[in-house]
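Comment thread on ticket #2218

A.B. wrote:
> Attaching the input chain for the structure job we discussed in standup.
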Amino acid sequence: MSSHAVLLRQSGRYLWGGAMCALLHNALVIGLASGGIPYPLALVISFLVTVPIGYLFHSAVTFGEPRSWGRLMRFMAGSLAGFGWSAALMIGLHNGLGLPIVVATPLATVALFLWNFTAARWAIVRNER
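C.D. wrote:
> Ran it. Output below, let me know if you need it in another format.
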């Protein structure tokens, strides 16, 4: 199979798994913030829940690669960088522009989707030598 075909197949699978994780993330952040938890703490809680789930899904389904500590650590590093971008977007959208959490969270999620795919592919598919 050509590298373009593999990337296209992985992109489709990532879209499905990423969408599930994005829905979980949005439900957690919006639900926790609506329940009175400050959104920065809600972001951290969501990170701690969704990143391990995302790693397990993308290892097995999206990329079909075995799990390993090295891949998990790279996945966590990529996710942590994405978390920083997400927090910055939330500060800009919610605090800066005054958008409600229910609007700012999905906007930040969509903005980070390409980053998350690239980081996940780098973390999981990269050879471990």
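A.B. wrote:
> Thanks. Noting for the ticket: Residues 47 and 80 are 8 Å apart (CA to CA).
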